[in-house]
């Protein structure tokens, strides 16, 4: 049902309408006819709870007859609310004036505004979608226009996950770098039929450097200058800008790393074709030895920079980022900090500088190959301090410069795999990658916790898949009922109880964190599995895989690969820092795609994983206060929990070998909030206050944190602090 427009002859009241769910939020328009210069703030209330506000300031086609037509709003809703909410209301913030009737979320049809959208953070990257209403199968050509001149054109043919019916109609584009001149520019975004996209025109105003760098050119001193710098740095963190990889050469010229102050001495270079004995000989007379890879060259100043990190950080191993040269094109390979799980899956390090003491302490086997000794030395050095230089130090011909077959044999005999009894095999799809499998040394009881409110269709599928596709018997199911009212839900509860599930009533205002905390206390299992009601198990081994990782030393949480019905990845880990918040990894990747640096296919560490499917120890969860129901009642409670236990030394792992469908969010979408439309929300404020300056070790500071594009889908403009990472 799409509500009718509010009809009135009184020009002092509000005109407008709600379009419905667009992406992961509520879209519509609102204006006061008696004052068309005013841009109203609209408040969103879901089931009687205020969830946020948004300003009605963006172009909306239905508001075209009024003023400049810029009266559209978009207010995001957390994904878990979209699966459980019922009644939705909007009204003018502070005054309480209404302009549309309450409506039911799940019965709302998509409005025409879903046919197109362009989003911007005020920088040079734009993204969105465009569907031809006359021919859904056709992909439209999208152009950015300034002063009647086409700046850039792209095809809207990218895979997407939201809104409905836009898969294959997405686009991202990068405006010319010369527009980053500090001046405001109004850019029109049109399709090939000269139709403006919703959100057009967009207004951009950005500099290539950090805004805080302006202070070097202004006459401000003392306390005022220090305060202004803090304000500008906060702006930079909340509104990070991005540049496409196609501009890498220009970006690299504009942002070279700082010149090293240390003079080179005591470091030798060992070619990849040299025998292992040569490495030992060089270590005898040098502080460190740099091991090259086949088909790889060092970039200027690379050796000096690596030697400086080795000496200043007292690192046993130093590596840096790389550039890959292919068909006269150079693209960067921006790497995470050291992760032994990712390294076992794929040698991503490139040339490495090894402390000579590590080499001298390791027995070099007669006739040992360079690859074998390199791998053993890396694992030995990693038991000490590893330093990562977050800028390119080498130029490679391939992303896989080390023989994967020989390396696999060396890893199989390594202490890291022997102590965990792990098995290492070739990846079934990408045979040059490795899959790690860990035995289940014991079988602790697992409590699977599922919050719900009605939606028997979703919950029934979830429970059915658990029963049919879970090859693990030592588990219980706890369903947290947050005020269900439908008889079909109660019938499902009765059937679930007959099969051993427990129903825990939670007759209070919606609070995702509090509901899960309540169930965690009641849980009888040693392990907790938080699971959304809109998930569905794909393979019988999912819980065995996750549990085998949780049983490893130091592991505190394990996350799964969640997949939308169109086979795009809904969750492949979490990057902390996007929009100074957090973002899921993989939303532009199909489940069988390699992803950036093959990270869609390999077990690895992340800073956080989503609680839509999260395994953790009950003792760790309760000892650390569980999810925070005060500061994060709906969103970010899972990320906050992961970051808190990481501070205590626990590792957060993600595995691609535990796959689940994530159903409802595919039809409702993902939080791709245009920055200007983002709500001023309590959870945002608390997360930014607590974690806003977190430097994610598993995400490179040269990569974008813009909310307009996906993680790994562009360059940071400018790069963040590129200090040596340990």
Automatic annotation (TrEMBL):
Q: Quick check: keyword Transcription regulation in the entry?
A: no
Residues passing through the membrane, by range: none
The organism's lineage is:
Bacteria, Pseudomonadati, Thermodesulfobacteriota, Desulfobacteria, Desulfobacterales
* Domain of life, source organism: Bacteria
Species the sequence originates in: Desulfobacter postgatei 2ac9
Ranges for domain Glycosyltransferase 2-like come to: 447-558
Kindly state which keywords UniProt assigns to this record, in alphabetical order. Answer: Transferase
Q: Which GO terms describe its molecular function?
A: transferase activity
Q: Keyword Ribosomal protein: yes or no?
A: no
Q: What is the name attached to this protein's record? A: Putative glycosyltransferase
Q: Which SUPFAM superfamilies match?
A: Nucleotide-diphospho-sugar transferases (SSF53448)
Q: Quote the InterPro entries the UniProt record gives.
A: Glyco_trans_2-like (IPR001173), Nucleotide-diphossugar_trans (IPR029044)
């Amino acid at each position: 049902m799409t509500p009718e427009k509010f009809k009135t002859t009184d020009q002092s009241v509000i005109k407008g309408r709600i379009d419905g769910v667009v992406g992961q939020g509520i879209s519509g328009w609102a204006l006061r006819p008696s004052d068309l210069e005013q841009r109203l703030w609209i408040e969103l209330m879901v089931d009687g709870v205020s969830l946020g506000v948004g300003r009605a300031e963006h172009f909306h086609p239905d508001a075209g007859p009024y003023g400049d037509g810029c009266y559209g709003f978009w207010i995001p809703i957390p994904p878990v609310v979209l699966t459980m909410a019922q009644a939705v209301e909007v009204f003018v913030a502070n005054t309480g004036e209404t302009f549309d009737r309450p409506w039911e979320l799940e019965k709302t049809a998509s409005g025409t505004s879903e046919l197109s959208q362009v989003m911007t953070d005020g920088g040079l990257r734009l993204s969105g979608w465009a569907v031809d209403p006359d021919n859904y199968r056709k992909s439209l050509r999208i152009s950015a226009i300034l002063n009647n001149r086409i700046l850039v054109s792209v095809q809207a043919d990218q895979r997407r996950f939201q809104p409905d019916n836009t898969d294959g109609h997405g686009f991202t584009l990068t405006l010319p770098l010369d527009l980053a001149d500090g001046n405001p520019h109004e850019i029109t975004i049109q399709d090939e039929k000269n139709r403006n996209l919703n959100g057009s025109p967009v207004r951009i105003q950005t500099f290539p450097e950090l805004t805080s760098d302006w202070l070097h050119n202004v006459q401000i001193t003392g306390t005022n200058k220090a305060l202004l710098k803090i304000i500008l740095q906060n702006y930079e963190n909340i509104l990070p800008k991005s540049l496409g990889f196609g501009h890498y050469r220009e970006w690299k010229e504009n942002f070279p790393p700082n010149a090293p102050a240390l003079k080179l001495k005591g470091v030798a270079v060992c070619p990849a074709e040299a025998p292992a004995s040569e490495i030992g000989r060089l270590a005898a007379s040098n502080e460190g030895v740099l091991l090259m890879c086949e088909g790889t060259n060092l970039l200027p100043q690379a050796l000096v920079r690596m030697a400086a990190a080795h000496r200043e950080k007292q690192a046993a191993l130093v590596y840096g980022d790389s550039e890959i040269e292919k068909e006269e094109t150079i693209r960067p390979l921006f790497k995470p900090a050291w992760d032994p799980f990712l390294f076992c899956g794929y040698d991503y390090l490139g040339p490495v500088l090894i402390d000579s003491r590590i080499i001298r302490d390791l027995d070099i086997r007669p006739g040992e190959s360079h690859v074998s000794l390199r791998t053993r030395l890396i694992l030995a050095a990693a038991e000490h301090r590893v330093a990562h230089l977050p800028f390119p130090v080498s130029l490679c011909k391939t992303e896989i410069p080390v023989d994967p077959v020989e390396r696999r044999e060396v890893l199989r005999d390594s202490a890291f795999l022997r102590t965990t009894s792990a098995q290492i095999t070739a990846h079934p799809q990408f045979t040059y990658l490795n899959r790690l499998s860990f035995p289940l040394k014991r079988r602790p009881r697992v409590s699977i916790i599922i919050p719900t409110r009605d939606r028997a269709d979703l919950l029934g599928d979830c429970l059915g898949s658990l029963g049919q596709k879970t090859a693990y018997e030592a588990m219980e199911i706890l369903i947290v009922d947050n005020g269900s009212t439908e008889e079909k839900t109660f019938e499902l509860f009765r059937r679930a109880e007959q099969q051993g599930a427990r129903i825990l009533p939670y007759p209070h205002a919606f609070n995702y964190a509090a509901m899960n905390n309540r169930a965690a206390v009641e849980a009888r299992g040693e392990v907790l599995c938080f699971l959304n009601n809109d998930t569905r198990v794909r393979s019988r081994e999912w819980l065995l895989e996750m549990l085998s990782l949780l049983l490893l030393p130091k592991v505190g949480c394990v996350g799964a690969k969640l997949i939308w019905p169109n086979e795009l990845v809904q969750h492949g880990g979490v990057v902390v820092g996007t929009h100074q918040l957090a973002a899921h990894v993989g939303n532009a990747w199909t489940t069988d795609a390699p992803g950036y640096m093959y990270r869609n296919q390999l077990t690895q560490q992340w800073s956080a994983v989503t609680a839509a499917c999260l395994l953790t120890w009950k003792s760790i969860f309760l000892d650390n206060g569980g999810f925070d129901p005060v500061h994060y009642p709906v969103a970010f409670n899972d990320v906050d929990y992961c970051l808190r236990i990481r501070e205590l030394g626990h590792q957060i792992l993600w595995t691609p070998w535990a796959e689940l469908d994530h159903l409802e969010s595919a039809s409702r979408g993902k939080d791709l909030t245009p920055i200007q439309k983002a709500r001023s929300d309590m959870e945002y404020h608390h997360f930014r206050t607590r974690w806003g300056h977190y430097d994610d070790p598993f995400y490179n500071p040269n990569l974008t944190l813009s909310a307009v594009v996906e993680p790994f889908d562009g360059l940071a403009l400018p790069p963040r602090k590129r200090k040596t990472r340990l």
